């Protein structure tokens, strides 16, 4: 007899979960445990660095190994009597929010591995030794670490497929559809974590280009637009090259530095966005000009 399509997908979910738990075991019980043991001797890297690299991998491993995989196994053994997995996945979904932290930390973790491999040969050697083992299948630590990042999208795809193949009258339809919705929300949560991380990284790059004092470096700021602009001097009837950074709360009016050591720009003026007015000017001599007036002062600017 041909197995029903939905059972094949449920079995694929179980098989990939088994392989995934093995990968998590390798990350948590082998890499993390052994690197931590060495860090405690003080010969390779600080313990803090190892913790930062592996983030919350231990919680993720325990959850999948001790809860989700055993539940799935029980379900598949009992499939003929009770063909359903939707309710188990519903129980899983809220715990997947743990991935937000891991995903957000991923780029930083990879950077730390690279930096400390250069700084500490014993650290690099230990990783290389573990990577030579059969269980690593010739793959690097970074490659194994990518697996949790890719796991939630994989659940989403498998579950979409499962729901599509379920017969209309299946007892699992309601639960499976609800589970899919929950997984979709978690995937969105995970993507939001990545977007937030990218936003903060971009912000930090801008701060470095500006060589800023701490009072401007605020993680809640949002860069909206940046670009070159001409400042019109009414006195001399000429223009000079300036540069603007528009944030959600302030406009930074900058001068490009001639000698670019350290910061790229010097901030000449900060204007609060609150109460700021922008007015277009009809000037035949200087087209595309506008006035920006704020609490601090008024600027006459010309766009390209």
Explain the overall architecture.
It is a single chain. With about 300 residues, the chain is of the alpha+beta class. The chain has two domains: about 210 residues, Dbl Homology Domain, Chain A, CATH 1.20.900.10; about 80 residues, Roll (PH-domain like). The chain is about 55% helix and about 15% strand. It contains eight helices and seven strands. Strand 5 and strand 6 form a beta hairpin. Helix 1 runs antiparallel to helix 6, helix 2 crosses helix 5 and helix 5 crosses helix 8. The longest helix has about 40 residues. The radius of gyration is 28 Å and the shape is flat. The N and C termini lie far apart (about 70 Å). The relative contact order is 0.09. The mean pLDDT is about 90. One of its GO terms (molecular function) is zinc ion binding. InterPro entries: DBL_dom_sf, DH_dom, FYVE_RhoGEF_PH, PH-like_dom_sf, PH_domain, SOS1_NGEF_PH. Keywords: Cytoplasm, Cytoskeleton, Metal-binding, Phosphoprotein, Repeat, Zinc, Zinc-finger. It is found in: Cytoplasm, Cytoskeleton. Pfam families: RhoGEF, SOS1_NGEF_PH.
Structural class by secondary-structure content: alpha+beta
Series of secondary-structure elements, N-terminal to C-terminal: HHHHHHHHEEEEEEE
Q: Averaging pLDDT over every residue, what do you get?
A: 91
Largest sheet strand order: 4-3-2-1-7-6-5
The number of helical runs is 8
Low-confidence stretches: none
How much helix is in the residues? Answer: 55-70%
Into which percentage range does the β-strand content fall?
Answer: 15-25%
CATH architecture of the largest domain: Up-down Bundle
Number of strands: 7
User: What's the gyration radius in Å?
Assistant: 28 Å
Integer tally of domains: 2
Stated plainly, the CATH topology of the largest domain is called Dbl Homology Domain, Chain A
CATH superfamily of the largest domain: Dbl homology (DH) domain
N-to-C span: 72 Å
């Amino acid at each position: 007899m041909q197995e029903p399509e939905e059972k094949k997908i449920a079995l694929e979910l179980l098989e990939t979960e088994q392989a995934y738990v093995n990968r998590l075991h390798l990350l948590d019980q082998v890499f993390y445990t052994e690197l931590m043991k060495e860090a405690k001797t003080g010969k390779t890297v600080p313990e803090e660095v190892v913790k930062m690299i592996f983030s919350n991998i231990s919680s993720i491993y325990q959850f999948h190994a001790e809860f989700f995989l055993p539940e799935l196994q029980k379900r598949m053994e009992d499939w003929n009597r009770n063909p359903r997995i939707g309710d188990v996945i519903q129980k899983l979904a809220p715990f997947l929010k743990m991935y937000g932290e891991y995903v957000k930390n991923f780029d930083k973790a990879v950077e730390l591995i690279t930096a400390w491999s250069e700084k500490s040969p014993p650290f690099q050697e230990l990783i290389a030794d573990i990577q030579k083992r059969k269980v690593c299948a010739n793959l690097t630590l970074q490659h194994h670490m990518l697996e949790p990042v890719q796991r939630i999208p994989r659940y989403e795809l498998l579950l979409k497929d499962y729901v599509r193949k379920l017969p209309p009258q299946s007892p699992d339809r309601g639960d499976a559809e609800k589970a899919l919705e929950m997984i979709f929300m978690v995937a969105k949560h995970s993507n939001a974590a990545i977007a937030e991380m990218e936003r903060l990284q971009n912000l930090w790059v801008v701060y470095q280009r500006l060589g800023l004092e701490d009072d401007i470096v605020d993680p809640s700021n949002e860069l909206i637009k940046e670009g070159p602009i001409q400042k019109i001097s009414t006195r001399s009837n000429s223009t000079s090259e300036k540069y603007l950074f528009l944030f959600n709360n302030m406009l930074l009016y900058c001068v490009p530095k001639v000698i670019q050591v350290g910061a790229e720009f010097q901030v000449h003026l900060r204007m609060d966005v609150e109460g700021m007015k922008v007015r277009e000017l009809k000037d035949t001599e200087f087209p595309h000009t506008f006035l920006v007036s704020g609490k601090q002062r008024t600027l006459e600017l010309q766009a390209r």
